[in-house]
Amino acid sequence: MLYKAEFHERYTDASEHLEKVIETCEFLINDCSLKQFLLLILQLGNKLNAGTYAGNADAIKISSLAMLADTRANKPKITFLHYVVDVAASNDASMLEFRSKVADFQRMSKTPFAALEEVNSLVEGEK
Fold first, then answer.
1. Rounded to two decimals, what is the model's pTM?
2. What's the rounded Cα separation, in Å, for the pair 85 and 95?
3. Which residues contact 35 (CB under 8 A, 6 or more apart)?
4. CA angle 58, 92, 74 (to 5 degrees)
5. SS3 content of the chain, % helix, strand, coil (to 5)
6. 40, 66, 79, 95: which sits with the fewest CB atoms below 10 Å from its CB?
7. Which tens digits make up the pLDDT trace of 27-85?
8. How many helices (H) and strands (E) does the chain have?
């Protein structure tokens, strides 16, 4: 009875969080500007690493993306990420359109993991 009484409220809260996550995932999968930007990172990384074991990569690890801001150039306060953004802006500024969704990413990243586990517990509770 307790499960039945709390179900609607728990379901509403959990489904709102889950919808944010699904929206963000769909954006990450389908957005053309983000795909172009990631391809540019891959191409520039392959040029930078030409002649080494990492010079002909087919993909980028997600963990490597976090290091883009740490890879320094020979100019002070300039990173590889700064360089990629400059190249994108000068060649095709539409590659940077995905930045308008940054607020959505930040909102989704604040979704507590426990809220997503709540969906699982609701589904298991039905069985």
1. 0.73
2. 9
3. none
4. 70
5. 75, 0, 25
6. 66
7. 888 999 999 999 999 999 899 888 888 778 888 888 888 888 888 878 888 899 999 99
8. 6, 0
